[in-house]
From TrEMBL:
It is found in: Cell inner membrane. The keyword Cell membrane applies. It comes from Vibrio furnissii. Keywords: Cell inner membrane, Cell membrane, Chaperone, Membrane, Transmembrane, Transmembrane helix. Residues 220-286 form the J domain. This is Co-chaperone protein DjlA. It comes from the Bacteria. The lineage of its organism: Bacteria, Pseudomonadati, Pseudomonadota, Gammaproteobacteria, Vibrionales. Its main location: membrane.
Amino acid sequence: MHIFGKILGAFFGFLFGGPLGAIFGLFLGHQFDKARRFNQAGFSTGGFGNGPSQAERQEEFFKSAFAVMGHVAKAKGQVTQEEIRLASIMMDRMNLHGEQRRAAQDAFREGKDADFPLEQVLNKVRISSGGRFDLLQFFLELQISAALADGDIHPAERNVLHKVASGLGFSADQLERRLRMHEAAFRFQQGGGFGGSQGQQQYSGGGQWQQAASKDRLADAYSVLGVSDSADAKEIKRAYRKLMNEHHPDKLMAKGLPPEMMNVAKEKSQEIQHAYDLIKKEKGIK
């Protein structure tokens, strides 16, 4: 427990300002202790000093991503075993083992802390990413994916995601658009809104389900690309190329994406490609 700053702050505050000074000193000491604790955990809240290396920026991005995941998970109240399981799934998607996995777990726990400095950490992410839109978008989408891993985003999680988006420089409308796209992507991965045993039961009822599922899956494919079903071939191709350019794993890596997150970037680009292929087939786009 970090209380050194509080003790000194309260002592000198009382010495120079009496009881009111002690209260003010206690507050300043608390801020000092909080900053010290997160510095020791790898989340410095100030600048980079003489400038970080690429590896240091990637490490900052990596730790911050899992810390913010923990903070989003905590939004619903007490973090349950389900939230921990979903975080573990994200770690599995990144093939994290040994020291890397322990670092992610430690960061996730830091994010659950009541004093977690969300604004400072997000500001740090903006600095470590060099303000690159693609990396900031990836960071935000990573938080959305983690929150949506159980198929639903709790209102409290949604509120925190809005804070995360704002801290990264995205508007509320931009976040809501990405939420819609990710919700559609989740359904698209599940097979048009029917997943698991429910889909099998409905499929066994006859060809009517197959037609409905295909229609739902196609609607989700359009949402994945962020276009309407009335979009022409030119608009669809433009949306596809834009998304692929923003999510291309090699380009993200070149801009500073941590190598541990390459698999997630690959999955996203494959998802975009599959949605585009389905729309191309439906519309006869060459």
